[in-house]
Amino acid sequence: MNEQTLITTAQALTAGHKGLLAMDESNSTCNKRFEAIGIPQTVEYRRAYRELIITTPDLGKYVSGVILYDETIRQQKKDGTTFIKVILDAGIIPGIKVDIGAKQLAGHPGEKVTEGLDGLRDRLKAYGLMGARFAKWRGVISTDDTLPTHGCIAANAQALARYAALCQEAGLVPVIEPEVLMDGDHSIHQCFDVTEECLQAVFAALYLQNVMLEGIILKPNMVLPGLSCEVQESIDEIADATIKCLLRNVPAAVPGITFLSGGQPAELATARLNAMNVRFKSGMPWDIAFSFARAIQQPALEIWKGYEANVLAAQQALYHRVMCNAAARRGEYNM
Ligand code: 13P
C-alpha cells in the first residue's frame, strides 16, 4: 500500500471548497428515478443522462470527484470519447461504487447488509486500471421502535471495514458510507443515538482491519428527524446535532467528511451543510463537504426529462447546485 498516494487522493477530494458528485445509481435505482418522471429506462437513456452530467461546462470548478457505476465507467460520449477521459480532462477524480447492494440480513427481519466482498480484490484492481482512484460502499440502517439491532450495525460495519482494507491495498481511497435512513417517524434524538452507535462500530471495525484513517473519506448521514416525524428541527439545530455527533465519534485523523443527501430537498441539504460551516468554522478537525446524488442531480433530471433540447438548461441547474454546495462549504450560501 502506498500510504502517501492514499493521503494525497483523500485530501484532493475533500480539501478546498469542492465536493463529490455521486452519479453511481445502480441501473435499477436510475431506472426508478427515470420512471418517476417518464424517461425511458434503457441503457442509451442512462448513458445520455450521464453524458449530460459529466459534460456540464466548468463542472471541475466545484466538483473534485465523481462516483461512477460499473455500467457508466465503461461508457463513452456519443462521439466515442470515454467518460473517464472526459472526467479527467475536466480535472475531476473518477471514483467507483463497488458494493453490489443491500440484501436482507438473515435472522434480522426488516434489516439489510450490503454485499460485494467476494471477488472484490480483483474488481478493485480492474477499476484501478480503468482509472478509478477512489471507491464507495454504502451500508443502510433503518430506524423504528425496535430497529436497528446491534447485529445489523455490526454486520455492516464489518463489511465496510473489510471493503476499506481491500481498497487501500489496491491504492484506492475508500469512501465509507454508513447511512442511517431518513424513512420513518423517529426523532432527531433517535437518529443521533443510532448514528453514534454506527460510527462507533465502523471505527472499531476499521481499527481491527488496519485501515489507515488518513486515507479514507467518511460519508455519513446528517443527524435528522425521520421524514414523517412530527417535530422537524431547524437548520441550525440539525447542524449542531450533526457536528456534535461527529465530534464525539469521528477521529481527527480522518481528513474529510462528505455527507450524503439521503432524500433531503436539495436546498435544505445545502443550507444544513452551510450552517455547519458557519457555526463550527474553526472547531472541526476534518473538512466537511458534500457527496450528494439527489440533492445535486434531481433538479437537473426534472428539467432534462430525456429530451436533447433540455440538455443545456439541465446542465445549468446541475451547475447551480454544485456552485451552491461549494458556497455552503465556505459558509456563504443563502437559501
Ligand atoms: P443521495 O445524496 O441521493 O443520498 O445519494 C448519495 C449516495 O451516494 C447514496 O449512496
> Major beta sheet, specifics?
8 strands, parallel, barrel
Q: Report how far apart the termini are.
A: 43 Å
**Rough shape?**
globular
Provide the gyration radius in Å: 19 Å
Q: What pattern of helices and strands is seen along the backbone?
A: HEHHEHHEEEHEHEHEHEHEHH
Q: Level of helix content?
A: 40-55%
Q: Report the structural category.
A: alpha/beta
List the uncertain runs: none
Strand order of the largest sheet: 1-2-3-6-7-8-9-10
Bound molecules: 1,3-dihydroxyacetonephosphate
Q: Estimate what percentage of residues fall within beta strands.
A: 5-15%
Give the strand tally: 10
Number of helices: 12
Mean pLDDT: 98
Describe the structure.
α9 links the parallel β8 and β9 (256-259). The chain is of the alpha/beta class. α9 (235-249) crosses α10 and α10 (266-279) runs antiparallel to α11. Helices cover 47% and strands 15% of the residues. The strands form two sheets. It has an eight-stranded parallel beta barrel, surrounded by eight helices. The protein is globular and about 50 Å long. The chain is built from twelve helices and ten strands. 1,3-dihydroxyacetonephosphate is lined by residues 22, 138, 177, 260-262, 292-295.
Task: Give a summary of the structure in a few sentences.
With 335 residues, the protein is of the alpha/beta class. It contains twelve helices and ten strands. The protein is globular.
